[in-house]
Amino acid sequence: MTLLETINLKKSFGENVVVNDVSFNVDDGEVVSLVGPNGAGKTSLVNLLSAYLTPDHGQILFKGRDITSLSVSERIKIGIARSFQIANLFDELSALDNISLSISARSGKTYTFLSLADRDTGVQNEAGNILSLFGLDDKSNIPAKELAQGERKLLDVAVAYALKPSFLFLDEPTSGVSTRDKAKIMDTISSAVRNEGVTAAIIEHDMDIVFKYSDRIVVIADGRIIADGPPENIRDDKDVISVIMGSQGNEV
Predict the structure, then answer these.
(1) Contact by Cβ (8 Å): 35, 204
(2) Whole-prediction pTM value?
(3) What share of the chain is helix, strand, coil (3-state, %, to 5)?
């Protein structure tokens, strides 16, 4: 079943067209990677889908519903969440409190930032379970700013995961992480989303990660989709691989 669909989606900044007539879909339960050279339009596309940008033209459908005009908070409520290339955390709060805040926001509860987890046993227990799922249970009381880069990336994904989305966007979940730690991070993330049946779209530059963890790969260049298929098809297309490995300026 198609979970998310775009129809002729377009976005420009002045004369710079960053998303150019993009139509594609993601089925329920898929893990799809969005790849392409720097400046291809990957992040702009995800920003459109998660409401951080407004399209100039086209539609975004989620579970068959037109959500093009919905805000970030409205999309979170219907089951769309995302992590960021640069971890979007409350650095002074503990790992547990970062998760607790996300759970509380999902539930419509509001608390002060002081001892969030201690105020609600149910929230505390759920936050602890999520930390354990992401291999961070021994970091629960450590402020986010003191975590290693890989741990911060995992916590950022865990915060988005705590919103209980049916669709999760992951923006470069292994960027800035040592080669040794990348597979461990992706094993953890992949296990979490697949065990819960969460659909995921991942922006990722490491093609070893992309080929190993994706059900499908969507290749973007100059704001357009130039290839879409299973990893083995993309791997065997030398022209597409040449585009992926190319460079076209800064990421947008």
Answers:
(1) yes
(2) 0.86
(3) 40, 25, 35
Contact 101, 81 (CB under 8 A): no
How many whole angstroms separate alpha carbon 166 and alpha carbon 72?
15
- Joined together, the tokens standing for residue 249 give 């300026």
Encoding tokens for residue 185?
A: 């991070």
Instruction: Quote the tokens at residue 107.
Output: 């539930």
Compute how many other C-beta atoms are within 10 angstroms of the C-beta atom of residue 164: 18
**Of 188, 123, 200, nearest to 154 (Cα)?**
188
Torsion angles phi and psi, residue 81, rounded to 5: -140, 170
Tokens describing residue 250 = 């800064």
At 233, list the tokens: 């098809």
**Which residues, 6 or more positions from 45, have their beta carbon under 8 angstroms from its beta carbon?**
9, 19, 22, 34, 220
| β-bridge pairing 80-82 and 167-171 | parallel
Amino acid letter, residue 243: V
Asked if residue 111 has pLDDT above 90, the reply is no
Residue position matching structure tokens 């702009």: 44
Model confidence over 201-221: pLDDT tens digits? 999 989 999 999 999 999 999
CA distance 244 to 246: 5
**How far apart are the C-alpha atoms of 60 and 70, rounded to whole Å?**
10
Contact 59, 67 (CB under 8 A): no
* 95 CB-contact burial (10 Å; exposed 0-12 / middle 13-18 / buried 19+): buried
DSSP bridge pairs for 127: none
Tokens of 12: 């420009």
